[in-house]
Amino acid sequence: MDKLGHTPIAIKDKTMKSHWLLLTTAALFLSACSSDDLEEELETINFGSDYYKNDYYLLNATDYELDYHIANTQLNGDERDVADDDYYLATLAKDAQQYAITHESNANRKLSLYVAARNVFGPVAQKKVEVEYDHAYHVVAWQNAAQINISLIEQQQDNQDNAYALRIFAAEPIQVSIKGHAFSLGAGELSAFVHGSDCDSDVKIAQKNVDLCTISFNRSYLLVANQQGLTALYTEQ
Questions:
Q1: What is the rounded distance in angstroms from the CA atom of residue 218 to the CA atom of residue 198?
Q2: Number of helical (H) and strand (E) elements in the chain, helices listed first
Q3: Over 80: is that where the pLDDT of 139 sits?
Q4: What is the pLDDT of residues 77-97, one digit of tens each?
Q5: Among the CATH numbers 1.10.3470, 1.10.150, 2.60.40, 1.10.600, which is that of 48-154?
């Protein structure tokens, strides 16, 4: 009791209410600030059969050193700013080996792929794609003149004894000959598997022999080519 004989219960109650109000306001503020982060986390929560966790192999078949980014679209289907540093994955130099990553997404949600030359004035490429559950993909950055592009190609194999298997991806319109059988590909087109056994004469691009003597029989490969011939060669995992 105070000097007037009053018990300060009301004052204590007001103090508790003030503390409660401050805590509630802070919680609401934090919740609002983190709503975007929460939405992004929800996107990759395991929703049973709707949960995708795939392997991606980053490939650089250009003349540039490239930064690679991947972002899931938002739950409402809108794209995020995939160029943001939050979605950076790796940097690959010209002629670098393929770089493997695992990325999580949900069914019926698209991915945004993005590559940018490290040179501040260099070119960029962006593409929105759909993927399937439990598949492995090539993320291929390729070049047509000074322009870079990006393509998503599902990994496949067609191994045969005493032969190598190739799929040919054209960065420019090219003429191809496999054991004398000729066909053409437009820029950005991918051939079906073809097979050869002679490493230096079975495959011709733009009427020039392609040296494949570093590859092996009973293996499958993705070959990227332009009008000058082979630009990059990658193993199908």
A1: 13
A2: 2, 16
A3: yes
A4: 677 899 999 999 999 999 999
A5: 2.60.40
